[in-house]
UniProtKB/TrEMBL annotation:
Biological process annotations from GO: intracellular protein transmembrane transport; protein secretion; protein targeting; protein transport by the Sec complex
Family of this protein: Belongs to the SecE/SEC61-gamma family.
NCBIfam families listed in its UniProt record: secE_bact
Keyword match RNA-binding: no
Gene Ontology cellular component list: plasma membrane
Domain of life: Bacteria
Transmembrane segments annotated in the record for this chain: 28-53
Name recorded for this polypeptide: Protein translocase subunit SecE
Membrane topology reported for the UniProt record: Single-pass membrane protein
Family matches, as InterPro entries: SecE_bac, SecE_sf, Translocase_SecE/Sec61-g
Keywords for the protein's UniProt record, in alphabetical order: Cell membrane, Membrane, Protein transport, Translocation, Transmembrane, Transmembrane helix, Transport
Amino acid sequence: MATTNPLQFIQQVRAEVSKIVWPTRREVLLTTVMVFIMAALTAVFFALVDILIRSGLQGLLNLFG
């Protein structure tokens, strides 16, 4: 494995960093909002599933209890 000196390493890192395409502020804002919306929808979905399972089990227990 070839070794490089620290100066060459820093130059290579800077060259690679310059190739990165950074997102715009608008893209970051939109994706952040989408994450919050999806998290809220997921929370509502699991809350509804929990309520349905709980009411089903309570009904089943009342039927046999």
